[in-house]
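Private note to self, pasted from the team thread so I don't lose it. Backbone tokens:
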């Protein structure tokens, strides 16, 4: 059977999360914003308990957590929601990096069509956008700096700690896309200085279709973000629409589990990485890591297998492994990875790259066995 090694696209749901969600679907039938009966109160209590679980994972207060449909929506609110403030203050300059998820890149591109000035910083070949380059672009009218914590394609950790520290006492808002780090780099996120943070539950063994935007208070005030949709007062008016109670419950549960288990998950992922690297080294195939392994999270690697077309390899090894060569939202039609392009790699290297990512439910022996088979096919393709 094929082994799933595409956790950065989405993770299988944790059984405990699923059980808790089913229990909620069965027993919590009210709308969390119905004030006039106990059914609503019960739904509200579930939502508030989940908010607390998210807040505890991130070490923020529950009032700073706003549930959304996931990272894409959180990011859109964080960026587009600043438009009114930008118009009022004349701050219309944004700094971000070329390796952000499209949710950031396409949103800032849209704002640039409205007259915003956008600076996009390219990383070097280590896969890291340099903090000093980001910070050097900040100027008097800078509204926002948006940088991801961990890149989804390479797994490379970005210098958000340094950027956050430097922006801490400035007027510039700092948004961190923590979609790939939430539940993994727990202590790092807890120690980060930021104004806004986005994530999706399905990247940390929670359900798809739910996530959160975290807005940190400064001097008791939330960042000046306004709703980008209208239609209700849910989530303090920031995200109107009926709260999907069971999804939110699943999000909270996934965060609670991650808080308890992130260390063992990290170690488990490291053991798998060591094994896969050993298999790679023994295979005799020539390969290069895309990005500096010293900065890579424990559940991912992105490698170029010299002389092997990754598209052909993935198709001919589907029966062994589910892997990818880019982010799922850009993979409908093949186009070379914009992340690897931004890192300055030649086309040949990009077209021979694969992303392998795993997680808490990955079984070491199964992953090792199937990855070995994939490499056997790769060797045949080379001959
Ligand atoms: N940001 C990063 C770094 C991601 O990896 C993803 C999803 O792959 C997103 C944002 C968007 O998440 P979603 O599709 O759950 O909204």
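Design output:
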């Amino acid at each position: 059977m094929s082994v799933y090694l595409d956790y950065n696209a989405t993770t299988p749901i944790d059984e405990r999360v699923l059980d808790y969600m089913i229990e909620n679907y069965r027993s919590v039938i009210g709308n969390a914003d119905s004030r006039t009966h106990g059914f609503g109160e019960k739904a509200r209590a579930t939502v508030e308990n989940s908010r607390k679980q998210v807040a505890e994972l991130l070490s923020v207060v529950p009032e700073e957590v706003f549930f959304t449909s996931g990272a894409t929506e959180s990011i859109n609110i964080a960026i587009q929601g600043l438009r009114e403030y930008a118009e009022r203050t004349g701050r219309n300059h944004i700094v971000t990096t070329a390796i952000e998820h499209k949710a950031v890149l396409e949103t800032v591109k849209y704002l640039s069509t409205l007259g915003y000035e956008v600076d996009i910083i390219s990383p070097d070949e280590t896969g890291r956008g340099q903090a000093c380059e980001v910070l050097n672009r900040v100027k008097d009218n800078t509204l926002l700096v948006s940088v991801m914590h961990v890149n989804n394609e390479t797994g490379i950790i970005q210098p958000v700690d340094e950027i956050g520290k430097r922006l801490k006492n400035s007027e510039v808002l700092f948004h961190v896309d923590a979609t790939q780090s939430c539940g993994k780099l727990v202590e790092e996120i807890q120690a980060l200085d930021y104004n806004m943070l986005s994530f999706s539950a399905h990247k940390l063994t929670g359900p798809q279709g739910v996530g959160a935007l975290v807005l940190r208070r400064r001097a008791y005030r939330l960042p000046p973000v306004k709703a980008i949709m209208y239609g209700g007062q849910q989530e303090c008016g920031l995200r109107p629409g009926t709260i999907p109670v069971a999804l939110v419950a699943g999000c909270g549960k996934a965060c609670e589990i991650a808080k308890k288990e992130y260390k063992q998950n990290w170690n488990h992922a490291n053991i798998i990485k060591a094994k896969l690297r050993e298999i790679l080294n023994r295979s005799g195939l020539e390969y290069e890591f895309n990005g500096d392994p010293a900065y890579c999270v424990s559940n991912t690697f992105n490698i170029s297998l010299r002389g092997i077309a990754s598209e052909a390899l993935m198709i001919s090894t589907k029966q062994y492994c589910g892997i990818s060569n880019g982010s799922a939202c850009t993979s409908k039609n093949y186009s070379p990875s914009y992340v690897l392009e931004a890192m300055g790699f030649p086309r040949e290297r990009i077209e021979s790259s694969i992303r392998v990512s795993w997680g808490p439910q990955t079984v070491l022996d199964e992953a090792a066995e199937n990855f070995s088979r994939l490499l056997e096919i790769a060797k045949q393709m080379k001959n």
